[in-house]
Amino acid sequence: MKRTHTFAALLIAVYAVSTGAWGQKVYRCGASYSQTPCPGAVTVEADDARSPQQKAQADRAIARDVAAANTLDKARLKEEAQAAAPTIPNTKSSKTKTAKSKTRAKTKKVPEFFTAKAAAEKEKKKN
Question: What are phi and psi of 108, to 5 degrees?
Fold first, then answer.
């Protein structure tokens, strides 16, 4: 999943560089923003005013928050699995029970399913 996020971020960055996204003007039209001017539009400065040190600090904080979120997510999944464990049947023990019941069925000659049959008439043997 981490590779997917990295690939997506890289793809977005390459796309932004190829379109020249940092050189476009942004216009404020009332309560919305657009790349095309509207009547009475106000040009908004959309450049990143942070220094490289501030950006690096923000990137480190984001990485720390993502790591903390992943840790919490793993802990939550583990707790959910432990809570659900008693309700999930153990497949290993159910297989042994099935094997035991099959061997009992073979020894007792009990059919697996009930089938209704008419009473059989006994044939008289000729002497």
Answer: -90, -10
